[in-house]
Amino acid sequence: MDFIWRAKLARLVAACHPSEVLDLATGSGDLALAIKKACPTARITAADFCLPMLEQARIKGVERLVQADGLALPFSDGSFDVLTVAFGLRNMADWKEAILEMNRVLRPGGVVFILDFSLPEWEPLLSFYRLYLHHVLPRLAHWATQRKEAYEYLGGSIETFPGGRKMNALLEERGFSCDAPRPLTLGVVSIYQARKRG
Ligand SMILES: C[S@@+](CC[C@H](N)C(=O)[O-])C[C@H]1O[C@@H](n2cnc3c(N)ncnc32)[C@H](O)[C@@H]1O
């Protein structure tokens, strides 16, 4: 499913016709590659603070890689038309600081896209999803990967990460004008799109 979600995000990026794109917390570069496919003429910079992840991105064919911390980006103000972050903001130590830094490196009128896990709003589905997230998934993951703790972290981080209107409020308070959140796959992930004011 994550490839379908990233492809959807890449189509939204293409609709902005950007020249300069920053894919922050790029990891092994899957979103950067999807954006390159959707926007072949754009210059895409892929940034992450983890060198081994950047090495994986290089092996997959991502060209312009920068080691950078999302809380102190090594780019001038107004450098990018579009900034994307997929499954990355939730893992950052300070979401508010990271959003301010995203705002700084975007040009006025530039667009940020955040793709991340969220919780379904429909109550019966939410109860079922929580059962899956906190009890079924960690056990399955332990069986398949022997790394149960990573999936326990995943469930906990999804619970505390602001979703829907709360994420839009964080963005609005830090200089963005937001579109309505786009829940995907019954709301287990969402895409947030916001334009830098000014
Ligand atoms: C779950 S991966 C997501 C990777 C990729 N965006 C994707 O869609 O698959 C999260 C990434 O966020 C990166 N990350 C976490 N905090 C960061 C920070 N403060 N600055 C830069 N990268 C960060 C991690 O190194 C990791 O590669």
Notes on the protein architecture:
With 198 residues, this protein is an alpha/beta fold. The chain folds into two domains: 153 residues, Rossmann fold (3-Layer(aba) Sandwich), CATH 3.40.50; 40 residues. The protein is 45% helix and 24% strand. It has seven helices and eight strands, in the order H-E-H-E-H-E-E-H-E-H-H-H-E-E-E. Strands 1, 2, 3, 4, 5, 6, 7 and 8 form an eight-stranded mixed β-sheet that branches. Strand 7 and strand 8 form a beta hairpin. Helix 1 crosses helix 2 and helix 5 packs antiparallel against helix 6. It is globular, with a radius of gyration of 17 Å. The N and C termini lie far apart (36 Å). The mean pLDDT is 96. The site of S-adenosylmethionine has 17 residues, from helix 2.
Helix count from the secondary structure assignment: 7
CATH topology of the largest domain: Rossmann fold
Poorly predicted ranges: none
Query: Percent range for helical residues?
Result: 40-55%
Instruction: Specify the biggest β-sheet.
Output: 8 strands, mixed
Rounded mean pLDDT is 96
What small molecules does the structure contain?
Answer: S-adenosylmethionine
